[in-house]
Amino acid sequence: MRIEQLQAFLAVAETGSFQAAARQCQVTQSTISRQVQALEADLDAPLLHRGAQAKLTIAGERLMPKARRICQDWLQVSRDIADLMAGKQPELCVAAIQTVCAHFLPPILQQFCQDYPNVQLRVSSLGSDRSLKVLRDGLVDIAIVMQNPKLTAHPEMAVIPLYEEAVEVLLAADHPLTAYEAVPWEALSRFPHVVFKDGYGMQRLVQEQFQKCEGTLQAALELNTLDAFRGVVRQGNFVALLPKAALTECRRDPTLAVRVTEAPVLRRQVVLVTTHDRLTIPPIQRFYELVKTLASDFQGPAAATVSPLAFVR
pLDDT, tens digit, for every residue of 189-203? Predict the structure, then answer.
């Protein structure tokens, strides 16, 4: 069954004439006849009494309201998809890790809202694993996360590298490890760590690094906000391994200290993840272009110096 067959049937039923239906559908009368006959063959029932005026059979009367509803739904979904591909979607949803939301996205969000004032932009701060899950479930259009090939290795996923940044050590200003300019991994294993909660890419990255160094990660406390990390670390002998962008404000806090690690220096890669079909939709494509433009110049804390007007023309 094809939508053209239902449209032909409705045109004949509404006009009472195959000839008038052909004029209404802008096709030949023989085309209308073939479409109605094919529909009757599919349903194995006559739909119209042929005569001076075409009239509905009992099967045609049963089909009529449903055929009209199907054609109306088809017309609406055709318009909806045309609007989507023309960039007239009502909203764009983004899930991103905290440091991206705080330091990387603000100038992009401002420019996007100027470019698409009728698209409601919704941004959620989530861990990497959670961001990728809501992307796979279709709840967001874009995820900006730490790279994790295990979660992004699907044919429909488009993974675009954005930037890399070093992971550094956050300490209280009077912590014993501040004696080092570059803290050894062995020394880090002697102190309790504050780590991100399970489901955050940073926890997995840090755990893997300790395993490679054959050290032990003393994960004493799990948190999920940067304010909480700063508050706990400044109180005692806890340490935290955090991405460079997350430590921008800490460098200006006299109660805290930031140190690099000895080699190997741990780095994380931040990527934009979406699906290939979404990249064909104009608002999503524009958001991606803005992200790529800024990412080429973004280097961790340098994001704090990026002007909110960086993209304003």
Answer: 999 999 988 878 888
Q: Which amino acid is at 135?
A: L
Rounded to two decimals, the pTM is: 0.73
Q: How many CA atoms lie within 13 A of 293 on its CB side?
A: 15
- pLDDT bucket at 244, cuts 50 / 70 / 90: very high
Instruction: Specify the amino acid at residue 27.
Output: V
pLDDT at 267 > cutoff 60:
yes
Residue 119, pLDDT > 60, answer yes
| pLDDT tens sequence across 24-41 | 999 999 999 999 999 999
Whose CA is closest to 165, among 146, 148, 143?
Answer: 146
* 214-220 long-range contacts, CB within 8 A, separation 24+: 215/185, 215/186, 215/188, 215/189, 216/189, 217/189, 217/193, 218/189, 218/191, 218/192, 218/193, 219/192, 219/193, 219/195, 220/192, 220/193, 220/194
